[in-house]
Amino acid sequence: MNRTNLRQSIFKLIYSLEIQKPEDINEQIDIYLENNKILKEQEIQEIKAVVIGIDNNKEEILRLIEKNLKADWKLDRISKIDLSILKLAIYEIKYTEVPYKVSINEAVEIAKKYGEDNSKKFINGVLASIVKETEG
Question: Does the N-terminal or the C-terminal CB of the chain have fewer CB atoms within 10 Å?
Answer without folding.
Answer: C
